[in-house]
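Chain A, query sequence.
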Amino acid sequence: MEIYFDNSATTAPYKEVCETVADTMSRFYGNPSSLHRIGKAAEDLLNDCRESVARSIGASADEIIFISGGTESDNTAIIGYCMANKRRGNKIITSKIEHPAVLEAVKHLEQSGFEAVYLDVDETGKVDIEQLKSELDENTLLVSVMHVNNETGTIQPVEEIAAMVHSVGAVFHVDAVQSYGKIKIDVKKLGADLLTVSAHKVHGPKGVGALYIKKAVRISPVIYGGGQERGLRSSTENLPAIAGFAKAVDIMTDNFDIAVSAMGKIKAYFANKLKESIENIVVNTPEDSVCSVLNISFVGVKSEVLLHVLEDKGIYVSSGSACSSHKKGRSHVLTAMGKKDNVTDSSLRFSFCGSNTIEEADAAIAVLTEQVPVLSRIMR
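Chain A, predicted structure.
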């Protein structure tokens, strides 16, 4: 039996999503920009998909552009807004625990002459609000803070942050890749001016996502060409993937409460059983965290070693962000939270979806209960 507890890295696409992708490829093969009947059919489907995604976050369809995924969406939001509005200010504020898609975009702008501030976080991974308050000024152009952290599941107080950001006339970007499908999102309630979501985190296809751009917020494209997606993301739209995305969103919306409840129950069960069964465990995920993510350190056991032991038993987890797992070095998220090296070096992320079961949790717990003490003695 395979047990997949790495859903924050990617999710298995729904069967209906795969069927939708295949059907769209064969039936709606026209270019949505073509003026003939086949192109118009593709355009109509594209517009229907845009409506579905917009509805899921409380936006209107003309505020959504389709894009290749979370990374491009973050880059387009941050770089596109700053380059289009650089006369209004020069300061960008983000946090030390953001996804590399945000951090690298901000570093790129630093090299272009922008000032960047990286906010500290507390021991639970929440942004230092007092530091943000002291850094916000009339020169602040953009603030980018993720809704949910991909490694620890920490939920940021984005509504409070949005109010502070808007008080100085700046724009607020929210990376909602990890909260989408786990926390109900209403962009107006959140106060987001720009918001990023990705299909493959909600059982959709890889290589497609969306960027919400609030009306009256002006950005520059980072990809140039034929002017698709309101001139903000040139390239013929990947309609099969977009249709699969919309199908995943519809399923997600219909089953939202059931899936969130299931994830929350298995996460709590998993954490409690492990704390009862294994010594020297440190739970790095705070109590008030997202339902899907649990980060635990098995102190004394290297995370990479334990990860592969679990893999040999058919259990798949992560030692951190999938986007940076091949890079050497400790987790920048846990380091920013003040975790000691031995805690950071022994951390694993278990991330759940609505179809995971208590039986799967019990099987994983049994392996961990057996293997962790053995590995701990060997590595002592």
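The chain has two domains: 3-11+256-379, 15-254. The mean pLDDT is 96.
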